[in-house]
Amino acid sequence: xxxxxxxxxxxxxxxxxxxxxxxxxxxxxxxxxxxxxxxxxxxxxxxxxxxxxxxxxxxxxxxxxxxxxxxxxxxxxxxxxxxxxxxxxxxxxxxxxxxxxxxxxxxxxxxxxxxxxxxxxxxxxxxxxxxxxxxxxxxxxxxxxxxxxxxxxxxxxxxxxxxxxxxxxxxxxxxxxxxxxxxxxxxxxxxxxxxxxxxxxxxxxxxxxxxxxxxxxxxxxxxxxxxxxxx
Length: 231
Prior knowledge:
This protein has about 230 residues and is of the alpha+beta class. It has helices spanning about 5-20, 30-50, 55-65, 70-75, 80-100, 105-120, 130, 160-170, and strands at about 185-190, 200-205, 210-215, 225. Helix content is about 50%, strand content about 10%.
C-alpha cells in the first residue's frame, strides 16, 4: 500500500489503539459494544460541529475505533506512542497559528490541508511534525518560514492560539472536506515567488494562493483559479 493510501489508515489505527487501551470491554456482547461506539461517535461529531477542541480531541480517540477489531487494536498498541498523536496535533496548531492566525476558518483549514497533502505526497516526509519542520535547522530553505525566521521566539498565546488548536484538532479528526484541490504549496497574495510559475494554481483562500505540482507542458491560466468563500 502506498504512503498516499496509508496516511489516513495509519492515523485511524493509531487512534483506535489508544482508544481501546483507555476503554475496556470486559465480557460485553456485540450489541453493547456497538451501542457504546455509536454513542461515542455521535458525541464526537457533535463536538466537531460545535468546534469544541478539547472534547473533540478526547472523543476522536474513541470515535475512530468503530472500524477496528479489539485484537487488531491491541496488537497495534505495541508500536503506537500516545505522545505522537499529541505531538502531531501541536505541530499542526503551531503551523496554523504562525502561518494563518489572522485568516478566516476556511483560510486556516486550507493551510492545514497543505500539510496533510504533503504527507500523502512521495516528495515529503510522513508526519505532520516532519513536514512542518522540514529544513528548520537551516536559516534559509525551511519549508514553512516561521520555523526558521525567528517567529517562534514569541510563544503562541491568547484566543488566536486557542482557535489554532481547535482547527488543528478538527483537521486531524478526519471530518474536513478538501478545499484546496490537492495543493501542496501556497504563498500570500503580497508576493509572487519564482517557484509559483512552475506550478498549477488551484485556489485562492483568504490572503493565500494555493498550488499543486503541474504536469509537463503545463501553461498557467488565471481562469483556472477558484476563490473559496470565507467561513
